[in-house]
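Running log. JK asked me to keep both predictions on one page so they can be read side by side. First protein, sequence followed by its tokens:
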Amino acid sequence: MNPYQQKRRWKYFLLAFAVVIASGSVFYTSYLVRNIARAERTRAQVWALSMKQLVNTYDNDFLTYVFAVRDSLVVPAIITDSKGEIVNWRGLDSTKTYNKLDKAELKQRKLQYDPGYFKDELAYMKKQHPPIKFTMLNEPQFVYYKDSPLLTQLKLFPYIQLSVIAIFLMVAYTAFSSSRKSEQNQVWVGLAKETAHQLGTPISSLMAWIELMKDKFNAEDDPLMAEMENDVKRLEIVADRFSKIGSKPKLDEHPVYEVVKEFVDYFKVRVSKKINFELTGNRRLTAGLNIPLFDWVLENLLKNAVNAIDGTGSIHVQIHGSKQKKQIFIDITDTGKGIPRSKFDTVFQPGYTTRQRGWGLGLSLTKRIIHNYHNGQIFVKDSELGKGTTFRIVLKTIRYDKQAKL
């Protein structure tokens, strides 16, 4: 199992564990809410019975007990008659009244006449719970009630709790992820610069040895010596690439077609003759490029395309653009084994590879160079198993030739 798949499995495991915890919290809170809701309905029923006993009881001692029971029931409730008129209430705002008193009495009792408040409360109670019916003085009465503030808060508690936990986890994940990426970047930059430094000495020696061989064997025009020089120059470019990692490279205006063509011409003579290379597209499009780094991108993509082709095949590079979006598109299409759609994003993750000896860093590095250094995009445009894959690079153009056809 490669490291990326293992990391993804751990993510799924932690996500499943979090879902279990969240579900357990919501389930247990719902259990408490149901029990408290039943208890509050019982309180409302007892309050209704106590109101009935107040009318039918003349024993002062028993009345004291009934008053004590009634006053201990703090569930907000309203009693209406058969016509829907409010006849009593409990647990609501005591500064408001549903009986229209004169202004002097309202002022003296520090009350305000607000029938709309009780109507709104009654409508809300009707929506929350079915009424409790009882008979008093041969007249049907209805008790409507709503959840107490405690029960309301308890209903909201699991969602508030889960939201706080989710925010905490997001902040923690972002902080740890940022810290981890920073550490990885530091390691990567240090390794890259040390590699460039280590390559410097043997490259200089090779260049000197080539010059000595030319003089000793009079091989100035030998094509083999020319190819050796090209390869040593390529090593110089590789060392220069590594030295630029971690610093902001300078982007110069270059014709994209010519840059791509130069590298394709260099690359295709170093791979199997069974693979045919084709380059088409607009020759006038220009973009800000850092040649050593951009060649690295092309090298990684073309190497992957070659490795994906089993035997005979072709690689087609097409360059075109959009005037409206001011973008340049570089499509690299191979006739290889293809990539499953589920792996379109995964292939750019560090450590992901399908080869036994691969490090899984090529496409990750390619994406870093395009996104971070060239302010562009790279993605799998299309792929079909057994038929091939198309990678697309998107760059910002610097200017357009008016005669250019995109």
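And the second, directly underneath as requested:
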Amino acid sequence: MKEIIPIFFTIDAGYAPYLSVALASLIRNASKDYDYHIHIVYESITEDAINKLKTLETDNAKIIFTKMKDGLESITNRKENLLKADFFTLTIYFRIFIPTMFPEYDKAIYIDSDTCIPGDISELYNYDLKDNLFGGCTDISCADNPILCEYFRLNAGVSINEYINSGVLLMNMKKLREVGFEKHFLYLLNKYHFDTVCPDQDYINAMAYGKILHLPNEWDAMPTGGKKVFDHPKIVHYNLFLKPWHYDGVDYEEYFWEYAKNSLFKEDILKEKESFTKEDEEEATKALEVLVKRAEEIMHSKVTFKKVFESNLEKRF
């Protein structure tokens, strides 16, 4: 009997077309020496989207859909919970609740849906986490922005070289349950309401600092505006605003379109690209400016992760 590798994605209905690309690439390139249980944790999704995504299943890759559990009422549409400082979605927090929702797994992989996976995912799974809570890659998408680098240092209390992107995570599920990561997250969220432009990501970095295994960045290669870094990325993550379904010339776009061309959502993806206007592009530019401005404001707040943890008001794991 083959070893099972559990992999998690979290989505809402609007991201099903892009998830189809992530799934197709993951399944095609994964080692046949393992079986894969691919869990899609969703807030809402159509039956049609489920049926289309299920067609990607193979003999060694099973796709399982699970509605997110109730009990997240405390995570509300407040300013400090906005993703990229401009919109609210509960799905960004779902990854924090995966360990308790799926107690049958001691270790798992989490991947964002705006990805393409040309590498063998079993290689990522086989990294030894030892006593660490997470494995992750440095968030290189922000490395060239001095304000965001300073934001990570002053708000989360983590330097840009140590600050990981939460879009690809190797998760020590057993250890996360043992330390009560989910409960402590909710406690901090409701007590301090930390202001943040990267909600789940800042919490993970601040809470798990010192308990994170830093992985080679090929496992979370991101477009950086024409500064393509890796010739052979293992996972491409179209983070922030540089999406190939919006723009031409995005770094690593060839990987996305290689798998999108055979997707049952191909027409939806092409329609989205065709409908992305100059006004939409200007809005994205403004959104990035808002994010940076908010980050600059937040890092000078009276209450930050760094101040709370370094004053010993709370302890990191």
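Observation for JK regarding the second prediction: The chain has one domain: 4-310.
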